[in-house]
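Below is just one:
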Amino acid sequence: MFSPVPGRYTYRLPAHLDGRAQVGSRVLVRFGNRAINGVVVRVGVTPPEGVTPVELSELLEPAPSLSGELVELCLWIADYYEAPPGEVLRGALPAGTQTGVRSVYALTAAGRAAAEGQGAAIPAKQRAKAWS
């Protein structure tokens, strides 16, 4: 998910990603209280005065998804058309690269047995009475 906010944000590369995250790389970053997808548009930039950057959370792919030239074109388009850079970059990414997070729950065999009353703390006679 890219955030449709104006401007760009400064993040710090953790030591284990130094040299691996390049312009055009898709990354996972903290944005407020959630994690969103982003694209690296600059590396080796000094953060603005008074800004303490947060570390990138994760590099999503081993190779950049966009070339440096395409990133520059996207940034120019965003500036020229006064569009959020994240939206323009999302439009340039290959299809199927949008990742999302969802929780999946599955009932285990032990959980299924407990739901059927096996191993329950309430005896079957009382359980039957309580549910009738």
About this structure: Strands lie at 11-12, 26-31, 34-39, 54-55, 58-59. The two ends are 48 Å apart (CA to CA). The mean pLDDT is 82.
